[in-house]
Amino acid sequence: MRKWMFGFLVLLLMTGLLVGGCAPDEEVVDEPVDEPEVAHPFEDVRVRQALNYAIDKEAIIETIFEGVGSPSSAPVVPAVFGYTQVGPYDYDPDRARELLAEAGFGDGFEIELFHPTGRYPQDDVVTEAVQAMLAEVGVTASLTTYDWGTYLDTVIVPPEDAEHDAYMLGWGTVTLDADYGLYALFHSSQWPPANNVSYYANDEVDALLDEARVTPDRNVREGLYSEAISMIWEDAPWIYLHNEGQVNAVREGVEGLIHHPLENILAWDASLDGDEQDLIIAIGAEPENLDPLKIMSAPAATVSEHMAQTLIYLAEDGTLEPNLAESWEPTEDGLAWDIELREGVTFHDGEPFNAEAVKYNLDRFMAKGDFEGEDAAVFAFLLGEVNEVEIVDEYTVRLHLDQIFAPIASHLSHSFIAMHSPASLEALDEGEHVEAPVGTGPFKFVSWDRGEQIVMEKNEDYWGDIPALDSVTFKFVPESSSRVIMLETGEAHAIMAVPPTEIERLEAEAGIDVVFEDSVRVIYIGFNLQPQ
Amino acid sequence: MYGYVIRRLLLAIPVLIGVSILVFAIIRFIPGDPARAIAGVHASPEYIAQVRKDLLLDEGLHIQYYVYMTNLLQGDLGRSTFTRRPVTTELAERFPNTLVLASTAMVIAIIAGMSAGIVSATRRYSLFDNASMLFALFGVAAPVFWLGIMFQLLFSVHLGWLPSGGIGTWQHLVLPALTLGLATTALIARITRSSMLDVLGQDYITTARSKGLVERVVVYKHALKNALIPVVTVMGLQFGTLLGGAVLTETVFSWPGVGRLMVDSILARDYPVVQGAVLLLAVFFVMINLVVDVIYAFLDPRISYGNKEVE
User: Fold this and answer.
1) Is A422 or B267 the better-scoring residue by pLDDT?
2) How many angstroms separate the CA atoms of A320 and A81, rounded?
3) Element counts in chain A: helices (H) and strands (E)
4) Which of A283, A326, A391, B44 is most buried (CB neighbours < 10 A)?
């Protein structure tokens, strides 16, 4: 009988594992907060700025992240189109106390600070550091920890349901276009259930963001974002913490790897010393699948991009470059975009790449046209403004928009909107999704051993520069110290996501280069600007 | 004997139903909206709605359970919300790898553990006894995770004898199997030793010795079989533990088994796969226990199976 009980215990433990962490870390203090006559402290911009001055961002990066990452200098990271440097807020506790006193909160106040655990690197440790630094200027923050799933449901709520005064979140501007990083988080139309979790509302910022959406000229857009960023920075709806960093490591003798801020490592220009040209890269997580409909993660994007390509390529410096599209221009009224396609490109199965293939892929992605009524892609919102894809001629498509939407080119560059051979997509069984991509890329799919690796080989008929490498293998090694060991033994030529604690050791080792790159994600503590 | 086995199989059914309810409940216990948790922070409301629909979250609990059980009985565990592949396919690919790893670890543990235990018992308080029991203490205490990394550093980085991870040749199996099996080896060694000492002190052994039997016959023919009963119990339970312990070992050594699948799925909030994997391991655990109980019958005919007299 005890054995059955043991079995149940195992199950109960599993259950505990899943729902664990949802209990609040600390008791919620129910004592009435000493509320001054004036409104909630966060309604005063001086208080919000003061709390920005109170946090030592450098110290957080140095001590918690071993120097990886950088203090936020804007609400988006530098690689994003539209970024302007407006910060960081210096660490100046005296200034913070001054501002608090000016605002009438010289004696401090108490807040409820909610944060997730296990979502962002060291998220709980960072929040604790923030708590300690806030205490230095007289602000007592009670922390409440949530498991990620519960957390989103707790903080992304209408103002009347919010129980928190402040919350921690991160946001990656994955299109590298400021629209994606600013509109979603600061436009007043984007309050929960969308992602403006601070309930920030500033008419001037709204106007700038709206205008930037409908302005095709990139220089003008850049100016608009720059202005919006300055305002958002001054308004301080967040405590701007840091830009996450990523660390890769590469063995000597590997040339030409691209370390992309979108947490990608790209190998089409790479080569190895010596005769053997078979590159092995160890990454932490396995792609979920390689179908534009269901693809969701950075590791999947990394692998996919080698085989299936986008119309427009988003380079590591944030510029948009021709890829399968040679050019893209809005029509005069801005309500449509004409996309000229590259000629003479074939998919790995020999099928031609043309306007028809593009329409097929985009319609499938958006669940429009022939795919009306089917499930749209997880990331279909990227093309939310597109209502029709028209074939103009064999190598031109026209995207018709519901309204003018300038960031469309950035969105089209997203690696999840990759072109697959329509024949290969049609061959999928009901309910099946792409696991062996047939694209136009520099590498062709060879095999996928689940839990182990994906292997691809050189595409001899590639339309661009034919790769020097004969093959590229992505190995999935979840444990970061095991990845480091693989690099040391030579079982891998390059690894992604080196753990901070191993950086110093690897840097000291001969024959290994450690590569630092900012990621696109900012981490912040948002204020609840609509306290009830 | 057959009657007993059939009765035990029938008794397993309510246990498995209990397991299925518990596993079913896992996903529903999560506070908040599991669809939101699965879809993530960037997800659009449309996609969250789609996930809700896929998981039938808008239906009543009884309907959800009915659909879940109906599918389960047809061998359909649903689709992974992450990879979009059938859960049964995922498990079928991974489970053999876990079995190979756990079985190898078990074989190592049985051979090494029992030998050490027997020798220790027959040479009580000798240098070998003390050394192997010290080693056993270390084996039980060493965390799998730490041990795995130490093995990697020693055998892969410094000596370069064995691959540090992955699957393929027998060399890939050595380090993870040793890592996984060490604690069990130690446990079996200790249990065998104490059980042997216990049996060797009993009257019938004294009788056997006084009959003038050679010590080898006394130890291996008369003592060992009786001493094995607690050892077999431990082996049965340990095999279940090994399947669970494989979670860590498989992660350290990038071994594509069910344990790692479970970790990946928990991280990705892929509840259908977590459910399937827990169910699979639970069923397997129940089966192992059954096998252990049947082995008792072979080892010790005195163990009563309830209605033996009637048969």
Assistant:
1) A422
2) 10
3) 15, 21
4) A283
pLDDT recorded at residue B308: 46
Integer Cα distance of B151 and B162 in angstroms: 10
> Cα separation of A45 and A35, whole Å?
17
Nearest residue in B to A5, CA atom: B15
Nearest to B261 among A378, A449, A451 (CB): A451
Residue type for position A133: M
- Segments in A387-530 forming alpha helices (H): 408-412, 422-426, 480-489, 500-508
- In this complex, the residue of B37, B237, B256 whose CB is nearest that of residue A450 is B256
pLDDT by residue (tens digit) across B49-76? 777 777 777 777 888 888 888 888 888 8
DSSP H helices in A194-273: 203-214, 218-235
Q: What pLDDT does B213 receive?
A: 77
Per-run averaged pLDDT (10 residues), chain A, 532 residues:
47 43 41 54 93 94 89 92 92 94 91 86 90 93 84 85 92 88 91 87 94 88 95 95 92 93 92 94 89 87 95 89 95 92 96 96 94 86 91 96 90 94 93 92 95 94 96 92 91 90 87 89 93 80
B93 near A CB under 8 A: yes
DSSP collapsed to 3 states, A300-365: HHHHHHCCCCCCEEECCCCCEEECCEEEEEECCCCCEEEEEECCCCECCCCCECCHHHHHHHHHHH
Q: Are B30 and A8 within 8 A, CB to CB?
A: no
- In angstroms, the CA A163 to CA A370 distance is 45
Computed from CA positions of residues B155, B160, B165, B168, in that sequence, does the dihedral angle turn out positive or negative? negative
Residues 167-226 of B with CB under 8 A from A: 167
A contacts of B164 (beta carbons < 8 Å): 482, 485-486, 489, 491
Start-to-end CA distance of chain A, whole Å, equals: 54
Number of CB pairs, chain A paired with chain B, less than 8 A apart: 170
Output the pLDDT for position B302.
67
ipTM > 0.85, yes or no? no
Burial status of residue A275 (CB atoms within 10 A of its CB: 0-12, 13-18, 19 or more)? exposed
CB contact under 8 A, B252 and A479: yes
Q: What is the pTM of this model?
A: 0.81
Euclidean distance between CA atoms A61 and A66, whole angstroms? 6
CB B17 within 8 A of CB A4: no
* Secondary structure (3-state) at A32: coil
Q: Which two tokens stand for residue A521?
A: 């994600």
Give CA B32 to chain center in angstroms: 32
Torsion of CA B113, B114, B116, B118, to 10 degrees: 160
Residue B120 CA, distance from chain mean position: 27
pLDDT per residue as tens digits for the range A445-468: 999 998 899 999 999 999 999 999
User: pLDDT at position A17, please?
Assistant: 41
Average pLDDT over residues B237-245: 81
